[in-house]
């Protein structure tokens, strides 16, 4: 079995962050979202991975390399533009051959990995196997309709009037029959080749499609709210570790990670929190569910439930919460701004905030 990882999307819902960074590389607990998916693929026993890349190909390739750091063999598959999930399967036809494969959306996060899903597929041998989860607003997703016996009978992509609240999770397993389905597709009303249409073709032609309704945790990390929630979830599992410098005037409470090369002085940190290598925290408060990436600076400030990307500086700010702050961003005081702030800052931006 091979894996097909989609890492070519534009990431429009995470702009301005994704104007200068691939959305799959935005870090969760100081590790790119994409890396969690690659690790899940490896842990499921899959070694050959094709990564579909677009405009951010160089950045993805620099981060992942040949895959050996993950115990994988990676092949890059260029896509000229995002033209739908089924289009990614189409351009990967030669790479995939007649092998079974798992298709994994590179900005998705599934707690518990995909090992059980892969094992079930190998044992039962359907032509396709999908994961479903109940959502409050299915209009934003691919939606599945099940019959009384729980079998998939219909699929729609982002329907105006959903027939169920069961959304497709961004992990799919396919046998080689999907290539016949994809080859017969025409662009949808979104001018894309929809994977839901390909699965519907399999159903309509009597091919077996199985589904699993998951009750565990899944997120499409395509927006700031979901990024922060996934960051919270991952930080819940960290173990305390202090390899950097922490002075006697500082207080660390709970699960706090201070990586080697980081320094904390005169500060109070209430975990779960991670402070990346080379970062400085001075006379500040870091609250729960905060990730500070490497080479950042937090001085005389308070920050909670936030993600701060590499090289950002927060100096003299009364309080920041529920925020995603881009690489090399600078946050400093200004004369008149409310004491509590919610920010989404693009890379290299500069914002002034009053105390």
From TrEMBL:
A single GO molecular function term of this UniProt record: glucose-1-phosphate thymidylyltransferase activity
Key words of the record: Nucleotidyltransferase, Transferase
Entry keyword annotation includes Transferase: yes
Transmembrane portions of the chain: none
Segments forming domain Nucleotidyl transferase: 2-235
NCBIfam families membership: rmlA_long (TIGR01208)
Name the UniProt record assigns to this protein: Glucose-1-phosphate thymidylyltransferase
Organism: Actinomadura yumaensis
